[in-house]
Amino acid sequence: MSQAMTHDPRRVTVRAPAKINLHLEVGAPREDGFHPLATVYQAVGLYDDVTVSTWHEWSVQVRYEGLLADPDVSGASADPGRVVPLDAENVAVRAGRALVDHHGVDLAAAITIHKSIPVAGGMAGGSADAAATLVALDRLWELETSDEDLLAIAATLGSDVPFALLGGTAGGTGRGEVVEPLPDTGSWWWVVVGSDTGLSTPLVYRTFDELNDLADLDEPSLPPDLLMSLAEGSLIALPAQLQNDLQEAALSLRPDLVETFDDGYEAGALECLLSGSGPTVLLLCSDADHAREVTAAMHAAGHPRTVAVPAPVSGVHVVSYDGGPVG
Ligand SMILES: C[C@](O)(CO)[C@H](O)COP(=O)(O)OP(=O)(O)OC[C@H]1O[C@@H](n2ccc(N)nc2=O)[C@H](O)[C@@H]1O
Ligand SMILES: Nc1ncnc2c1ncn2[C@@H]1O[C@H](COP(=O)(O)OP(=O)(O)OP(=O)(O)O)[C@@H](O)[C@H]1O
């Protein structure tokens, strides 16, 4: 079967969104080392596209685009923390292998990632690629994996991967992998301020442990007031309801981000928030026009990797099949 499939010319492209955390409450580490979370995820309009085709072995290539499209990112001198591995360590390849293991089939694929989500930026770019690869290969090989099984495989690949499948706005509990869609009637606008260097998620969690009295931490829970603002689509109380428990730790590792926050407020943001484990900074805006103004002000203040994005957006979805548009 794998020999016959080797020359199959079909291609499937799946788009996957970046995520932000409107609420990220962290508890004391569990016995397995992971931290219990209560988080409110939102998928934002910044995407990686993953294209797959059947191949005789696993391979992956990455094209850096959008915020990432400059020679410092993709060139030989790139900061190793900002380029992704091109071997079996790439989480997209790990996703592909997990899917074929699940189905007990002997198949492999060539994977191309068109990457716009900041690498090691706290926006779950790797998780987006993993989720996109699962769905792309499932469609390519007509495996008909159930949603339940896709979510379970996703959870083995990383805590943020199940949410990338879901998209929209969702609650995340457990270590973040237990996801539940949340009502969100708002049309929100965020300005995403990317950084020149990445931050390691495990390091940020370790720093959180050092900075906090772990015995004093409460069991994390989802905040009813924030959930109400989202359900009503009301911006009034939202700025004060944003919370990220990892922000202090990330800022202690990257004190320069304080200046980015200051520039964000100066640019007129309603609120500034660290994205996940950072170092990307998020600026809450009132609408698309406001987001455009804030973006221009951030560019002028010396933050070229700044872009305005709407939220919430859909989770992973097929955008082309056989190289042509869907439908
Ligand atoms: C910061 C967030 O992006 C918020 O959504 C996530 O918690 C991180 O999710 P992720 O990158 O998918 O994380 P994983 O790949 O599952 O884990 C990477 C590392 O982050 C730390 N980690 C992650 C999730 C969690 N609930 N507790 C942790 O302590 C662990 O050191 C783990 O080894
Ligand atoms: N396809 C991939 N895309 C991005 N990073 C990858 C990929 N495969 C492996 N990695 C590695 O995973 C690490 C985390 O990258 P990623 O961009 O997902 O970070 P992040 O957005 O901070 O993650 P999170 O928000 O989920 O904590 C990087 O060190 C990167 O080299």
Automatic annotation (TrEMBL):
Q: What EC designation does it have?
A: 2.7.1.148
Q: One of this protein's GO BP terms?
A: isopentenyl diphosphate biosynthetic process, methylerythritol 4-phosphate pathway
What's one GO MF term for it?
A: ATP binding
Q: Which pathway does it operate in? A: Isoprenoid biosynthesis; isopentenyl diphosphate biosynthesis via DXP pathway; isopentenyl diphosphate from 1-deoxy-D-xylulose 5-phosphate: step 3/6
User: Known InterPro entries for this protein?
Assistant: GHMP_kinase_C_dom, GHMP_kinase_C_sf, GHMP_kinase_N_dom, IspE, Ribosomal_Su5_D2-typ_SF, Ribsml_uS5_D2-typ_fold_subgr
Tell me what reaction this enzyme catalyses.
Answer: 4-CDP-2-C-methyl-D-erythritol + ATP = 4-CDP-2-C-methyl-D-erythritol 2-phosphate + ADP + H(+)
Domain (GHMP kinase C-terminal): give its ranges: 241-302
User: Isomerase among the record's keywords?
Assistant: no
Which keywords does this Swiss-Prot/TrEMBL entry list? ATP-binding, Isoprene biosynthesis, Kinase, Nucleotide-binding, Transferase
UniProt binding sites for ATP: 118-128
Asked if the keyword Kinase belongs to this entry, the reply reads yes
Pfam families from the entry?
GHMP_kinases_C, GHMP_kinases_N
Tell me which residues make up the GHMP kinase N-terminal domain. 90-168
Q: What residues make up the catalytic site? A: 19, 160
Family designation: Belongs to the GHMP kinase family. IspE subfamily.
Q: What does this protein do?
A: Catalyzes the phosphorylation of the position 2 hydroxy group of 4-diphosphocytidyl-2C-methyl-D-erythritol.
Q: What is this protein called?
A: 4-diphosphocytidyl-2-C-methyl-D-erythritol kinase
What's the gene? Answer: ispE
